[in-house]
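Hello forum,

I keep getting stuck at the same step: I have a sequence, I want structure tokens, and every attempt I make locally crashes halfway through. Rather than fight my setup again tonight, could one of you with a working pipeline run this one for me? It's a single chain of 378 residues.
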Amino acid sequence: MTDTPAGREKFVQIDRRLISHFDWTVFGVTIGITMMGILTIYSATYSITEQQASGFASKQLYWFFIGMVAMLAALTVDYHHVDRLAYPFYAAVLLLLFLVLFIGSVGGGSQRWINLGFFTVQPSELAKLAIVLVLAKYLQYDEPAYGYSLRDLRALFVFVAPLTLLTLVQPDLGTAVVLFLIFISVILMGGLRLRSLLYLVATGLTLLPIAWHFLKPYQRNRIWTFLNPDLDPLGAGYHVIQSMIAIGSGKLFGKGYLKGTQNQLDFLPAQHTDFVFSVFAEEWGFLGCLILLGLYLTFILFSLQVVARAKDRFGALLVFGVVTIFFWQVVVNVAMVAGLLPVVGIPLPLLSYGGSSLVSMMAAVGLLINVSMRRFTF
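Reply #2:
Ran it on my machine without issues. Output:
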């Protein structure tokens, strides 16, 4: 564009329109939940005897600033150029998942992280965003008149299967389940035929006995104790029982910040990661949980509005994929800690400790806002 008054005026006009269409609600809710998460992580790692917390909250704050950079980068470039990065990003994540098998760090019985010196990366968290990008790119063109058949989506199965299987091998059953749920949700949005969905469900139910055979012994025990938590109260059922006690003991108003006894006396496992909701519920009670879940609901509802207003199919699918990442993780995590689902390793988005999870989720929010900001362009 030439540097003329008219050209400069047009540039300024477009700039102002982008700012005026910035989704402050989604942005504000994202920052709010993240700040609540940092405070809860501090409480979850606070020691009464030492009168101080471990460094996890400080690390999460550092990751938050990195996440802000990732969010700004994701919303700055026009999202129409993002589809060019879908396959390269997928290939990079797939490579990282392969590397985890050989050079990955082990923690909690799982090999999920790659140590890069100054920090570690969990590729399975990036896999959620990789699947969404690939699905949005592949399904961005209008679906067939009668919807997609399973044969039409063979290429997508080829893309999704390696990410899911490599995540399952780590083992990380929770993330593998979420990857599958994201896949099913987005292809339904994309236009999967009802008959194809029924075939898919029937195939999944048929394969359940085979999947059971490949589960680790502790994973099978978690399923048994989900059906009957008192079956092994000091073993596999311990996590769920202590979590339900913490949630219930919060009652209506909670015990107060830094005053959760289940947490402070170390009855709760993984307080700052998978069971951070239990810490929050014990300290802030039923009303606090309503506020937190209300913020997640606000995020999801406003994001679905972005889906409805998106000017093209790629943008709509991209945002819907981001919504499914948040939705399924919230549902599975909260149901898990409340004893409504078996215990699996799923973080609560933006609230649980974890750099890879926080940065990838904030980058996903950046893509969502990107689509919302550019709904007026042609």
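Residues 23-373 form one domain. If your local run keeps crashing, start a new thread with the error log.
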